[in-house]
């Protein structure tokens, strides 16, 4: 398995990324209130999956 490099202080990058706020970093995680039974959510999920599959196929075709 490959390991990803950590960002921020761990790699010596002391600059915060654009749009990061120090106040946001105090929260360990963010909970999202998404209604999984909403038909619009299902449509969005299908659209995202479709685009991802196209991306994966294109990526695989380029390697071949």
Automatic annotation (TrEMBL):
Recorded GO MF terms: calcium ion binding; calmodulin binding
InterPro entries: Calmodulin_Regulator_PCP4-like
Biased composition (Polar residues): 1-17
Assigned GO CC terms: cytoplasm
Disordered: annotated span: 1-43
PROSITE patterns documented for this protein: IQ (PS50096)
Similarity section: Belongs to the PCP4 family.
Name of the protein described by the UniProt record: Purkinje cell protein 4
Organism: Neogobius melanostomus (round goby)
